[in-house]
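Progress note, sequence design subtask.
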């Protein structure tokens, strides 16, 4: 499924916190709970100090799920890997502004492959770093933890950038938030202008995934 058009609040559960032994089942539970976007955290042990999953995993789960696959590349040299992720079934590819000197080229490359493009910035990176390219994208992701691990504490100062980014991109581009999103923080980030909420620990630490999703969306307003 393509990235839903901006204008609705969506939750994007991060499957990094799912039970990897039952990934297919986890995805169908999300789908039955009304989720449209699955957030897929890709880490290379170089851009971030952790290693997760790559195109072969995306290709396998593509075979069992119709959800929008939102691949968050926390990797160095994203341009090298974009094509493999699109071929594996990514619907949106988000890369880090800190990982490339040629963000326009990467966005163009992603779009030419028929995929949605997203740009993201670390908690310590200023909005000015993405100013020129943000409106070329389908989604801008604001990191509210330092990328690398799920289950970290929400960084409130990083969330302050959401309003500035919403102003910059207008209403037609999704503004996503990633890191420490829960019933406690969801309302704050949507009030600042976010419409796409990544949640890992808050969804998958609850044996009842659907109940956790419902509670986060209710808190999001
Ligand atoms: C952090 C990842 C996040 C993370 C979210 O490096 O990009 O997507 O897994 O997990 P929670 O919601 O537990 O902070
Ligand atoms: Zn992520």
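Output:
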């Amino acid at each position: 499924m393509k990235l839903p058009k901006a204008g609705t609040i969506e939750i994007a559960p991060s499957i990094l916190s799912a039970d990897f032994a039952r990934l297919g089942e986890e995805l169908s539970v999300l789908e039955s709970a009304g989720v449209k976007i699955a957030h897929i955290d890709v880490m290379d042990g170089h851009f971030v100090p952790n290693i997760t999953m790559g195109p072969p995993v995306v290709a396998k789960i593509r075979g069992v799920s119709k959800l929008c696959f939102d691949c968050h590349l926390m990797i160095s040299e994203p341009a090298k890997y974009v094509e493999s992720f699109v071929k594996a079934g990514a619907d949106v590819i988000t890369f880090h502004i800190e990982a490339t000197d040629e963000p326009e080229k990467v966005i163009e490359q992603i779009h030419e492959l028929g995929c949605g493009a997203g740009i993201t910035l670390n908690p310590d990176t200023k909005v000015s770093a993405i100013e020129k390219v943000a409106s070329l994208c389908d989604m801008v992701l604001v990191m509210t933890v330092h990328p690398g691990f799920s289950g970290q504490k929400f960084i409130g100062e990083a969330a302050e950038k959401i309003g500035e980014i919403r102003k910059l991109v207008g209403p037609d581009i999704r503004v996503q938030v990633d890191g420490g999103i829960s019933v406690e923080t969801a309302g704050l980030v949507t009030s600042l202008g976010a419409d796409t909420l990544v949640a890992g620990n808050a969804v998958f630490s609850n044996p009842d995934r659907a109940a956790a999703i419902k509670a986060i969306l209710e808190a999001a307003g």
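DSSP finds nine helices and eight strands in the chain. Work on this subtask will continue into the next period as scheduled.
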